[in-house]
Design goal:
The chain is of the alpha+beta class and about 55 residues long. It has two helices and three strands, in the order E-H-E-H-E. It has a three-stranded antiparallel sheet, with helices on one face. The longest helix has 12 residues. It starts with a strand and ends with a strand. This is CxxH/CxxC protein.
Length: about 55
């Protein structure tokens, strides 16, 4: 499972991931090449972070 998040929604993304998956996630920065096309899961801003279990 992956969630994409902008700077504003990163706390919410981390909280939701833990609530849904019951494990602490890994937070990585979105690669520069993918940053333009990847949107935040909670708004229309470009994603800055990927929250995942891998």
């Amino acid at each position: 499972m992956e969630k994409f998040s902008c700077e504003k929604h990163i706390d919410h993304a981390l909280d939701m991931f833990v609530a849904e998956q019951k494990v602490f996630p890994i937070m990585d920065k979105v690669e520069k090449g993918k940053k333009l096309s990847t949107k935040c899961s909670y708004c229309e801003q470009p994603a800055e972070y990927i929250v995942s279990s891998k």
